[in-house]
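Appendix C reproduces, verbatim, an entry submitted by the partner laboratory led by Prof. M.T., so that reviewers can inspect both the input and the predicted structure.
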Amino acid sequence: MKEKDIEKAPDRLAVLEKIQTLEKEGKFDIDVEEDPPTIPLTPEEIDYLRKSTYSKLKNKVANKVGEKFLHDIIKENKLMIKEIKGIENMQKVETGAILTCNHFNPFDSFSIEHVFRLSGQAKRKKMYKVIREGNYTNFPGFYGFLFRNCDTLPLSSNKRTMVAFMKAVEAILKRGDFILIYPEQSMWWNYRKPKPLKNGAYRFAVKNKVPVIPIFITMEDSQNIGDDGFPIQAYTIHIKEPIYPEDTLSEKEKVERMKNENYQIWKQVYEEFYQIPLKYTTEEQKVSVTNGK
């Protein structure tokens, strides 16, 4: 059966239409998925550093389950990684670091986890993932279990919880571990362009004097068709040179420079891989790709 004869999932078609609308409106930081409503996360409900015995046990189980899940989705071609470029740029970082990546699929964090393991860094470091509040507090089933227990750092609308979050980030980076952050803020399914970046990831890097390792994933249609009727995407993972805070600048200038350099690196990867200039369809307002707050 040809791809054109396969019925495409209505929810995916609706998501693609919503992405087109948001891009035209310049609203790049709005999520397009129908996620469960967010329930506020209080400090009493989260043990960021997994200090308690119960938290450690759940974390250990979740990581084992997550590792098997990653192995299975690669084996079954549900996650297709065609090529990894620049893995040496991850291997050579001995300190803590912020990993930044474009966000376009729930499985893209598994791609980075796979690269992290292949790099050999998993032998001496852990990789934490910053996630949205609702994914921790109100996501059901198997994925909810992983969100809550598999080395994740949920954001929160509660100020006291965010104080604990910031302390955990500082401790994790100080001991030499990595933290994966999606600086675009939103996930747009199979969206190939880099979106404007927010400041958060770079503030963490500057405050804790660690580098940012910029990662950009490009994709192409494979011959495999997913359950949604669309071709499963084959990923090329581009890991670029670490970006370090510039000592001679003010803190604000350091953040801006790192963010802008990250975006320009992603833009260059996009244009070289797809062989087209990066252009947005924004109509109602002019987009500045480096002014996210």
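The first helix runs from residue 10 to 25. Additional entries are available on request from the coordinating office.
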